[in-house]
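Friendly challenge for the regulars: who can give me the structure tokens for this chain first? No prize, just bragging rights.
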Amino acid sequence: DPLEFPGGTIGDLAVHGTVNDVACCGAKPRWLSLGMILEEGLPLATLRRVLDSVVRAAEVCGIEIVTGDTKVVGRGQATGMYLHTAGIGERLPGFALDASTIQVGDVVLVSGSLGDHGMAVMAAREGISGPEAVVSDCGPVHRLVLGLSEIAQDVRFLRDPTRGGLAAVLNEIVEERPFGVRLQESQVPFGQGARALAEVMGYDLLHSASEGRLVVVCSAAVADRALECLRAWPEGR
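First reply, four minutes later:
Bragging rights claimed.
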């Protein structure tokens, strides 16, 4: 809510979210199921735009939509539309991703500015616009994971920081572990527009969702190489 926001639609979100979940398991996304729950009265023009965005996102990600289902519910029961997806991928060689393998001294890297999606959706809900309009970072991260495969043995953990943002991911990592995570605030990237909106609305961008970013925990010995691998792709530049 809303179904369309600056930088994407619920269709982009459905495809990218599942593609990124599969990629962060250390796999190449291949096949996708798509189920739709449509509310009575949903404009056909909206449905067409969303489905067009699904097709475009799937083509960009190189993933096939192989099955699905559609249901219609009464007016007022689905805020317009729900999409639910599941994905299957082929495991990439070399990765053995597990938060339990994280060690003291490892490094946390992120592939781009954080919190843009959460702030873009919030601005759309509240009708906020301006010269520093925030655009969602909604996008795929599977190519970034593929780029990291050359140092896969030194990559401990991958995650896309969606619900709860980077803070939720890092809290999950250290839960019941004998260490914490130290962040260098000056090194955490935030977009100017997202930072301004968060300050106005009283939000902490560390808790704001990103839908096209990658969190990498790797050995400090390969951190510089990992950054080079990420920056080799436009989505990690």
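Residues 14 and 85 are 6 Å apart (CA to CA). Helices lie at 10-23, 44-61, 116-126, 142-148, 165-174, 192-201, 223-231. Your move, everyone else.
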